[in-house]
Structure formats: C-alpha cells, structure tokens
Amino acid sequence: MPKKIAAGNWKMNGLVSDLTEVLEIDGAIDGLDCTTIICLPATLIYAADGDPRKRVEIGGQHCHPSPSGAHTGDVSAEMLAEAGAAYVITGHSERRADHRETDADIRAQTEAAWRAGLTAILCIGETLEQREAGRTLDVLGAQLNGSLPEGATPENAIVAYEPVWAIGTGKVASPDQVAEVHDALRAQVGPEMSLLYGGSVRANNAAELFALANVDGALVGGASLKAADFVPIVEALARS
Ligand code: PEP
C-alpha cells in the first residue's frame, strides 16, 4: 500500500516565531496513522530541526542540482539535508512559472535530492488552458516522463498532482477530475508510490478527496500555515 502523506508547503511565508505552529501540529497529530511533512522556507529548517518534534517531518521547497558552487542565492540539497530536511519539493508550478524551470531542470533537482538522501515531492500540473483544450493527461504524462528520473522508488519519490488553476485560488478540482488523473498516474508510477493531490485543499473538502482510490494524501499550501487549519486535514487523512 502507498503511504498516506499530508504535506504542507509554507511557500515564502514564516519567521522563526511561526515555528510554534509546527510544534502545535506535532502535538496534535500524536497517534494519527499517516506521515506529516511541513516544507519550510530554507531559513527556518535549521531552527525547526532544533525544536523537540516527534512526528512532523521537515522538507525544503527547492534545491539546486549542484552540491555547491557559484549560484548566488541558491540552496543545495546537501545544505537542506544538513539543516535537518528529509524531503524537498521539486517542480512546483510557482517555480516552473517564476524561474522558468523546465522538466529537465526538475529532473536534475530530483536527482540532486536523491544524491543528498532526500525524498523528492515532485509536482506536476496542467494549466486551465491545457485542461480546456482536453490535453490534461497528455501534459501530465509528459511532465512525469520528463521530470521523474530513472530509479524512482516509493521511498525516494512522492508525486503531487497540482492543477495550476487550483493552487491558491480556492477552486478545488472535482472528485471526478482528481480521480481521472490519479488513476492514470497510478498506472504510470506503479502500486506503491504515494500520489498526493494539491490545490486549495481545506478541512471542508479533504475527506471527499481522500476517499478516492488513488489519492494517498495532499500537498497543502495556504491551509498548512496554521495548526488550526492543517490538523483537521491530517485527521481526515488518518481516518480515510
Ligand atoms: C501548493 O502550494 O502546493 C498549494 C497546493 O497551495 P494551496 O493549498 O494554497 O492551493
């Protein structure tokens, strides 16, 4: 069975004082049967690692393909791992858009994550224009082929389906839309790899999504910033 995973993505939000939210999540999910990850800004990972967490795992949000070098402003997978991360997001649509990252770039970042011993949370997703043109499955299949390297296993990779039009917009994909995509992804990645849905997941829509056969959890942006919003999502996953 794929692992159930609730992953939060804080994006470019949070100061050290906000790490109390991670501790609150950690306390509240004790005994729940699923993996919980918070992907923090790089500046917070070392501080979070010093906190007495028992259950919440820490991730980064991006890594450069190289282990070190002349890349001002970038962070390597090795740096994230040393700071205390066990996971890193690769291929988030905001990075594809803001930094023009291609599938080849994301493949190299995912390989870098593995080199440093991190599990990659690889994001793929179609734009509204691509969906309306009936190209969703073709686009996602090509992104996955182009960005998931050879050697992917259920231990070193998690795939997150994040329709671009549903991220941060309050528009969640319908259960039928999610099921169609996740069934196709399952056929592509095999029976054991965790498949997450991401895009405006909230406490009030999580259970319906987690009830779908090939949805093993969620990647959550806005609703992961506060324990009061995120914990009910983790609880819904544990119950599913
Ligand atoms: C995300 O950042 O990956 C995301 C899904 O954001 P939100 O939950 O805010 O739509």
Provide an overview of this structure.
The chain is of the alpha/beta class. The chain has one domain (5-239): TIM Barrel. It is 41% helix and 15% strand. It contains ten helices and eight strands. The protein has an eight-stranded parallel barrel with strand order 1-2-3-4-5-6-7-8, surrounded by seven helices. The mean pLDDT is 96. Phosphoenolpyruvate binds next to strand 8.
Query: Structural class of the secondary elements?
Result: alpha/beta
What's the CATH H-level homologous superfamily?
A: Aldolase class I
Helix segment tally: 10
| SSE series | EHEHEHEHHEHHEHEHEH
Q: Kindly report the spatial arrangement of strands forming the biggest sheet.
A: 1-2-3-4-5-6-7-8
Gross morphology is: globular
What is the distance, rounded to the nearest whole angstrom, between the alpha carbons of the first and last residues? 13 Å
**Helix-residue proportion:** 40-55%
